[in-house]
Design goal:
Elements: H1 3-25, H2 30-54, H3 58-86, H4 93-108, E1 115-121, E2 124-129, H5 135-157, H6 162-184, H7 187-190, H8 201-215, H9 223-242, H10 246-327, H11 336-366, E3 374-378, H12 379-396, E4 400-405, E5 412-416, H13 417-433, E6 439-445, E7 451-458, H14 492-502, E8 506-510, E9 518-525
Parallel strand pairs: 4-6
Antiparallel strand pairs: 1-2, 3-5, 6-7, 7-9, 8-9
Helix pairs in contact: 1-2, 1-8, 1-9, 2-3, 3-4, 3-5, 5-6, 6-8, 9-10, 10-11, 11-14, 12-13, 13-14
Length: 527
């Protein structure tokens, strides 16, 4: 076996392996299919060239020559079909014309007008051209010109697409190498020149592989590992073919077999890893899309709650206002059962106003629309005001209220006075609602330098240990909280936490357990 025939066999095997790798990884891709068809024709040509240049029998050489000629004639037409699929050309008129011409020329290649047979040349057999053999090189040159024109046109057309430009440029270089090497095989027929250019065809495969790896031409997934393994296999196959003695051949064949075995294991491992990674990527993408959808739904929910709460506030305020005026006898004396009914309407409406306010605050917080008006004030005075305002309700609940504070030091803070008042009112009101009997103790002190702490302790129902860690989350309530306060929603403490955090402060709760009371703490920076 000479170097020319050996290189032809390597071309045949590398081309068919490469095309099968591409097709196997993306069987539904039309470009991959088109490349497979062209590669089968290319491999047939290389196999025929191997047979013609390696056999010692003229009768076998002519059979190989038939395979070579038919494959070589179809190759330009199938390569044009590959370019048409690569660039998304839907019209198939020219493709059909070229396939038809290739079919006619293939039939013509079996006649003596195309070739007279084969003759010994350069230590192997070579074609003996017939009277009209010149049609074949002309046909080949025309196809090479058309293919090059298509590539140049697409390159200039897509000059702003760097990835596609890289694909086209690489395909163009590979095509030039392939056509140049192929044209050199016509030299012995006309100029008696050895076809050294045939070795350039190897570069055609090299540049196509490079295009797949760098520019993701043909859209394959694990092709790099497969191509690498195939290249190693071909190298060791070359060593087997070059063996001159049986012992050398046996050793090389054993090594070749081991290389194939471990290459298969490597490719299988890479395939499994890539499939797992692709599955994870798909799940991550689905999760991301689901998360975006949930965020959109949450945004729509917040907007709806905000709108609904805002619309409810007006009517509830009006009902509460008129109920208050009726209880104050602004429209005349109201006595007996009527007064009791109006009192209940007023109380229920007031609870609804607080509830709607909580929903509106939550909506504003989640949408980032909560406004804060910071000013400097005395936290002790603000807490005293809140205690004074809530004292009638505390007295009505028959609870004892104590309000204490450190006698030394200032309690000046820089905060939104309205929001802090709302938080303190909420915490004291909660203590009232969840303390059936006993007392409530409000206390303000300097617990550490630069900080002021307000605490509200009660002797009420306490907090279950399992609920305490998530007490300030949305809609969190103790399992039996509804027995004490039916109207509670679990939003008040969430709103209070967000407001205090907006002031860079801290809020937390402590409780010895169910039935042992609870304490709430607010810590803010002093001025």
């Amino acid at each position: 076996m000479n170097l020319f025939s050996t290189s032809s066999l390597i071309l045949c095997l590398s081309s068919i392996f490469f095309s099968l790798i591409v097709y196997r990884n993306d069987r539904n891709n039309r470009v991959s299919k088109a490349w497979l068809y062209a590669s089968i024709s290319f491999s047939g040509w290389a196999l025929g060239l191997y047979g013609v240049t390696s056999t010692k029998s003229e009768s076998y050489a002519i059979l190989w020559q038939y395979i070579l000629d038919v494959s070589a004639i179809f190759l330009p037409a199938l390569y044009f079909n590959f370019l048409s699929e690569l660039f998304g050309r839907k019209k198939k008129l020219w493709r059909n014309i070229f396939i038809t011409l290739a079919t006619l020329l293939s039939a013509f290649s079996f006649t003596t007008f195309f070739k007279n047979g084969v003759v010994p040349k350069y230590d192997f057999f070579w074609i003996d051209p017939g009277q009209y053999y010149i049609i074949f090189p002309i046909y080949f040159l025309v196809h090479a010109t058309i293919a090059l024109s298509v590539l140049i046109y697409e390159y200039t057309k897509n000059k702003d697409n760097s990835v596609l430009k890289g694909q086209i440029r690489n395909t163009m270089i590979a095509g030039i190498m392939g056509y140049t090497g192929g044209i050199s095989n016509f030299f012995p027929q006309f100029f008696n020149v050895y076809p050294y250019g045939n070795y350039l065809v190897i570069l055609f495969i090299v540049f196509m592989v490079y295009g797949v790896l760098k520019y993701k031409l043909l859209s394959v997934k694990v092709i790099s590992a497969q191509i690498f393994s195939t290249a190693i296999i071909l190298v060791f196959l070359f060593n087997v073919l070059r063996s001159s003695e049986f012992s050398e051949w046996l050793i090389n064949f054993a090594i070749f077999s081991l290389v194939i075995f471990f290459s298969v294991l490597t490719i299988r491992s890479v395939n499994e890893e890539v499939k797992a990674r692709e599955r994870i990527e798909e799940l991550a993408k689905d999760l991301e899309e689901t998360n975006i959808h949930l965020q959109e739904l949450d945004q729509q929910k917040s907007e709806f709650v905000s709108l609904a709460s805002h619309q409810l506030r007006g009517p509830l305020t009006a009902i509460k206002g008129y109920a208050s005026m009726l209880l104050d006898d602004d429209f005349g004396p109201v006595q007996g059962e009527v007064r009791d009914a109006i009192t209940k309407v007023y109380a229920s409406t007031n609870d609804l106003v607080v509830l709607v306010g909580d929903y509106l605050d939550v909506s504003r917080i989640e949408q980032g629309k909560m406004q804060y008006d910071f000013s400097t004030f005395d936290l002790r005075e603000l807490a005293g005001t809140v205690v004074t305002e809530l004292k009638p309700n505390i007295d009505k609940a028959k609870l004892q209220l104590d309000f204490d504070y450190d006698q030394v030091g200032e309690f000046t803070v820089n905060a939104d006075q309205g929001k802090i008042k709302q938080v303190i009112s909420n915490l004291i009101d909660n203590s009232v609602k969840y303390t059936p009997k006993g007392s409530i103790h409000v206390w303000i002190a300097h617990t550490r330098p630069g900080k002021v702490t307000l605490s509200i302790s009660d002797t009420g129902v306490g907090i279950h240990p399992e609920v305490l860690p998530r007490l300030f989350e949305k809609f969190t309530r103790a399992p039996d909280a509804s027995k004490t306060n039916i109207m509670g929603t679990g939003l008040g403490l969430y709103v209070a936490k967000k407001m205090i955090e907006a002031h860079h402060g801290r809020i937390w709760a402590e409780s010895a357990g169910v039935g042992k009371g609870s304490s709430f703490f607010i810590e803010l920076d002093t001025v």
